[in-house]
Write a structure and sequence with these properties.
- By secondary structure, the chain is mainly β.
- The protein has a single domain, classed as YVTN repeat-like/Quinoprotein amine dehydrogenase (Methylamine Dehydrogenase, Chain H, 7 Propeller).
- The protein is built from no helices and 30 strands.
- It comes from Streptomyces caatingaensis.
């Protein structure tokens, strides 16, 4: 008998970024009831939960627009208490700007924030002390647009995906240096395996005009998730998909979740012309395709419950979050973020109830 994936989730909370609504909304993970929201700086994109201090970090990336077309880059992170649902601090990273990807090393209490290039420096990762909330330094990634960042379980190696650059940046977190470049045709989301031996990278990056590979000429590369051997910093396989993938998440049960971005037919591919997207699920160990199911337009962020039973897929254009039972691969609930007076579902964080 299939047990409800909601069993035992009383008190757990899901945080959802409303990108164009400039807010972070909170939902009861057991009932899907909306609990309230917190206003943040314009254009919030990603969130990260610090379980030690029970705080949510939220990165605001642009003043308006998106990566390929914006009116200027933000410099701030908002720190939120998810239990009282109030802002407790704002951290200004200036002169660093365009903060987006967030990754936390829980053991060392360090938050890593991807920032975009400036005239005098390449893109990089700002290191923040999670306890004092003060920047400790930055690590150059050698590319203009590092967008997502992930840390291996040991907290020693970090990986930054770079949209246009033909590589994933590998950085030594202890020495604060760029140590390798993994060759890929541009990249989006990523996830690191529980033992740190593999990295799963969405590639190529998402163009909103033309086809992937047009900028480099020739045939477009295979779309999907690149499987990277961490020891050799090289691609050893591809989990193929029919469409471009942006978000990638690896569950605690070893499932690779990929969000495929599907476009309407026509000569022009741009934001606003999105068809319903797709959640595609692979077995990380065998690389077997486990199934697919439709989700909203433009899946941009994916996370999962700690037990790996539920997936959450945030779709920015339809402003919906799709809750998926990963054992049956069926949608179990739909959260309509726009119905709450906000829009642009983006970053996600699952927040277990206090111990």
């Amino acid at each position: 008998m299939h047990q409800s994936p909601r069993a035992g989730r009383e008190g757990d909370v899901l945080a959802v970024v409303s990108q164009s609504g400039s807010a972070v909304s909170f939902f009861d993970a057991a009932s899907d009831r909306r609990l309230g929201s917190v206003d943040v700086a314009a254009q919030p994109h990603e969130v990260c939960f610090d379980p030690t201090r029970r705080l949510v970090w939220c990165a605001s990336t642009y003043h308006s627009g998106y990566y390929h077309a914006n009116s200027g880059r933000q410099t701030v992170l908002t720190v939120i208490d998810p239990d009282t649902r109030r802002v407790v601090d704002t951290v200004d990273l200036a002169p660093e700007h365009g903060p987006h990807g967030l990754a936390l090393d829980v053991e060392r209490g360090r938050l890593y924030v991807g920032v975009e290039a400036s005239a005098d420096r390449p893109g990089g990762v700002v290191v923040i002390d999670a306890a004092t909330r003060r920047p400790l330094g930055r690590i150059d990634t050698g590319a203009p647009g590092p967008h997502w960042f992930a840390v291996d379980p040991a907290g020693r190696t970090g990986y930054a995906t770079n949209k246009e650059a033909p590589f994933v940046s590998v950085v030594d977190l202890e020495r604060g240096t760029l140590t390798a470049k993994i060759e890929v045709p541009g990249s989006e989301g990523l996830a690191v395996s529980a033992d740190g031996s593999q990295v799963f990278v969405a590639s190529p990056y998402a163009l909103f005009s033309g086809k992937p590979g047009d900028a480099a000429g020739g045939e477009p590369p295979v779309t999907g998730v690149r499987v990277v051997d961490a020891a050799t910093a090289s691609v050893v396989g591809v989990l193929p998909t029919d469409h471009l993938v942006m978000p990638v998440h690896l569950t605690s049960t070893g499932k690779v979740l990929a969000g495929e971005v599907c476009m309407e037919a026509g000569p022009e591919s741009r934001p606003g012309r999105h068809a319903p997207g797709r959640l595609t699920v692979f077995d990380a160990a065998t690389r077997e395709l486990l199934g697919r199911l439709p989700v909203g337009r433009f899946p941009l962020t994916i996370t999962a419950s700690p037990d790996g039973r539920l997936a959450y897929v945030a779709c920015v254009v339809s402003s919906t979050v799709h809750v998926v039972d990963l054992e049956t691969l069926e949608e179990s609930a739909l959260l309509e973020i726009a119905a709450a007076g906000e829009a642009g579902a983006h970053g996600l964080a699952y927040i277990p109830r206090p111990a």
